[in-house]
Amino acid sequence: MRKLNVAILGATGAVGQRFIQLLEDHPWFQVAELIGSSRSAGKTYGDAARWVLDGNPPAGITDRVVGALDEPLESPLVFSALPKEAARLRELELAEAGHVVCTNASANRMLDDVPLLLPEVNAEHVDLIAVQRARRGWSGGALVANSNCTVMPVVMSLKPLRKYGIRRLHLVSEQAVSGAGYPGVSSMDMIDNIIPYVPGDEDKMESESLKMLGSFAGDSIVSLASTVSATCTRVPVLDGHLVNISVDLAEQPSLSAIIDDWQTYQAASPVPDLPSAPDYPLQYLQQIDRPQPRRDRQAGAGMMTSIGRLRECPVLGYKFAALSHNTVRGAAGCSILNAELMAVKGYIDGFQMTVGEAAFA
Ligand SMILES: NC(=O)c1ccc[n+]([C@@H]2O[C@H](COP(=O)([O-])OP(=O)(O)OC[C@H]3O[C@@H](n4cnc5c(N)ncnc54)[C@H](OP(=O)(O)O)[C@@H]3O)[C@@H](O)[C@H]2O)c1
Fold it and tell me: Which residues share a beta bridge with 282?
């Protein structure tokens, strides 16, 4: 039995660390290469990285030497947690060189031939890879993105409501500090404060959500035809992005029908059986003051989205709150789930997996 070697780009940052943590004991993938900036390259991981997660790095990680971004990689599968400027060209180069790249960076997310994949929402978008490979002449390589971390609770909670016709959306986020990476926002700005501006995120909320909820038309993604208005704020919470969502639906389902849609929602096979998939991706919390970041971000090992406070909205019809863990479901956990789906769908050459398999034979 062998596992597939993976490289992590931006391995020393907040998302890179979450990749390392989530890949410890992963049944199919193992961390083989850790890549940082020129600040870290050549140092041991222990010297280069300030570990910001609970506990310590998994055994064997701290003594590894961090590689440089411009060096060739050995690993067939690459998880990218690079800032967008560093990601833009390098991710495309690596895909062209035959690597399957799963990225968290925003640089290439909205390219026409790059799937913005969230398996419980749009697993069928994975087949855009065939179009990407044909169009770019890539053999074996691919580039697949996951969305901005604040978009995640929005599209997760709206997917079961799409059948009612989503006409308009009004979104107000309360985003955790880890969403800005490390060291992120200064404590002098963040303690005893709320910052009503998160650079770039409002545009991403308004565009990425529609691409993700869009349909795959065989050679392109047709974005959902809805209107979105987003306001993004940063709040003094460590992990977990909460979004207050108001939605105008073409149909008028009862509140109890919507809650039932959320509680019973599951993606089609094979998604629920992928190693990192939670049993159910959504939970509806009946308590009037939930979801809350501190209490609910770890639901389903950080992979569930928690929803609450569904009520009538005198402006748009319905309103509710949705919460996801930003570095697990909103970043590293989603990328790993995307790679698992690609392995099952045969998009990682030489590594065709079947759900339920312990490791590649
Ligand atoms: N934080 C979240 O919740 C979240 C969620 C979804 C998506 N994202 C996206 O994920 C990416 C990483 O975010 P983060 O929060 O982990 O940021 P971060 O904590 O600032 O980490 C950035 C990482 O990229 C490396 N890096 C910086 N400049 C580089 C360069 N020029 N060449 C090579 N490596 C470079 C850093 O290495 P050194 O330590 O060596 O400098 C570090 O490992 C970003 O694109 C972000 O938008 C973040």
Answer: 305
